[in-house]
Design goal:
mainly alpha; 78 residues
């Protein structure tokens, strides 16, 4: 009788273990998707920072260089 009870307990333990594994697998897949979304959002933030720190000063510098090189160009057309 005890061997039948032990077999039932092992079967329950095995099925619980399998259910837990499936649950953990689903949780891991959700975490992976969340991490991928975070990585995508961070890259967008990086591009925004690059625009602020690199491109805006570059365009400002270019416009100043054009003004210094051609100070009479505006007067010629005016």
């Amino acid at each position: 009788m005890s061997s039948a009870t032990d077999a039932e307990n092992q079967a329950l333990t095995s099925s619980e273990t399998i259910e837990n594994l499936y649950r953990y697998e689903r949780t891991l897949s959700r975490l992976r998707r969340a991490l991928e979304e975070l990585a995508y959002e961070e890259s967008a933030d990086d591009m925004e920072l690059a625009e602020i720190n690199v491109f805006r000063p570059l365009f400002r510098y270019r416009s100043q260089v054009v003004k210094v090189k051609n100070p009479n160009s505006q007067q010629q057309f005016g």
